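Quarterly update from the structural biology core.
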Amino acid sequence: MEIIKTQIFELFLLSIPIACVAWTITHEEIFKEPREYCLGRCKDSKTIVERKFFYLFTCEYCFSHYVTIFFIFFTDYRLLILDWRGYVIALFSLVWIANIYMSLFALIRQDVKKEKTKIELMKQQSK
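Predicted structure, tokenized:
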């Protein structure tokens, strides 16, 4: 039972860097130019394989699967079962938790932007 508690703790902990990497690459300013290039290629490419390949760099959900595969390989993390099935369970569990984190982060950022906009409007109205 103790090993399951440790694995669950690791699940929530390991999902944090997965969410961070996936969000940064698919949303933040530092990767804007490569992301815009990928957006153009996923819209204008002639083959479906090429369109889907470039799309994965613009979708945090899609990209988080590949980030998770990297982290599972890097950490040898398995969940519940200590053979190959544990990797599969870990993959989908980590992706799910990481996407919950990213959704919460998006809501917080949206709320912060909304508050900043309200403050700016109040400043303009008071002048």
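DSSP finds five helices and no strands in the chain.
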